[in-house]
Amino acid sequence: MPRIMIKGGVWRNTEDEILKAAVMKYGKNQWSRIASLLHRKSAKQCKARWYEWLDPSIKKTEWSREEEEKLLHLAKLMPTQWRTIAPIIGRTAAQCLEHYEFLLDKAAQRDNEEETTDDPRKLKPGEIDPNPETKPARPDPIDMDEDELEMLSEARARLANTQGKKAKRKAREKQLEEARRLAALQKRRELRAAGIEIQKKRKRKRGVDYNAEIPFEKKPALGFYDTSEENYQALDADFRKLRQQDLDGELRSEKEGRDRKKDKQHLKRKKESDLPSAILQTSGVSEFTKKRSKLVLPAPQISDAELQEVVKVGQASEIARQTAEESGITNSASSTLLSEYNVTNNSIALRTPRTPASQDRILQEAQNLMALTNVDTPLKGGLNTPLHESDFSGVTPQRQVVQTPNTVLSTPFRTPSNGAEGLTPRSGTTPKPVINSTPEIAFKNVKLLFNSCCNR
Known about the structure:
Blueprint: H1 13-26, H2 31-35, H3 43-54, H4 65-77, H5 82-89, H6 93-112, H7 146-160, H8 165-193, H9 244-248, H10 252-273, H11 275-283, H12 304-327, H13 332-337, H14 361-373, H15 439-455
Helix pairs in contact: 1-7, 4-14, 5-6, 6-14, 10-11, 12-15
């Protein structure tokens, strides 16, 4: 019975190198021709190996937290569509599926509160890997089989042949032409040594020699005036000006040195003629300094007499309020007319709120997916499976930005409230009198209150 060879199995380092060289030569479309170099692999397996492992654009680094959040979010939006999810994340489909199962196992272990060291997805002794294209290559043994050595030598010979049939024919014709030229040259040298001079026949070119004549030139007819002075006489080329320093021009350092020398000579002449201005120029002081003008303040809007009147009105109001409190008169009219003119004390001790606790989005999404996977039949009835809060607002999950709350925007000077700390009065309350109100009005109010107290 003939031996049946099934293509596939674990990829070896030799096969990976042959596949890389074949892709460099044949491209990523001729997989049948590439597979003919590998005796144990098919075209489909070669293509899968390139796009799942050998492609330089594949990321093989550790998964970041953002990639894991995006993977779980997209797996919830598009379940089992790994070919669609993979290019969004920037990984291969096999990597996305493998890491998704790893996250589900991790969430299940945390729910069961047990840590297992052995991975159930690892191959046991004697098992065959169903997806060898996504695994690292096996190193080559020191003593390779004859089949592998023959495959390696054949691939080396085929990949080294970089020329096609036409390129080979052109190279062969070029070599024959060179041999024919050398033979003719050797023959002419031998005849010249024997004293026989043979002139080399030059082929006459058909057409116009554009270097020797002007094509289709039409000379103008002679006129009535002499035009000999209009003939252009070419000047002799002056090769002395074609040196490198003349072509490059003047260097910047030379120009700066010449300017510095000019400044020194100018300063020297100025010292000899006008010494004070030269000293001021060297010391960095300008010759004409601008004098500073006097500070002009506006006239005060309140005089000392007005300030004294305000103090007297405040003292009279304080005396009247004390008198009303001692006599036991505490009605709304008294509290409205007699108000304090002190500065309102709004210094309230503010406390910075706590930063909200962050939640593990990856663990919550993994637990949601585990709960949806293990849900019972709806025929039993009962409540739905409890899930964590999630969102379907976009392809990428919403990220929780942890930041310290801004206490300035919630101060009593900005946030109105029903208490006494807000500056904006609510409806139904009488506003407090303004400090800079007219002194005569406040004095009349105090006088009316004092008269009412005396009448009682």
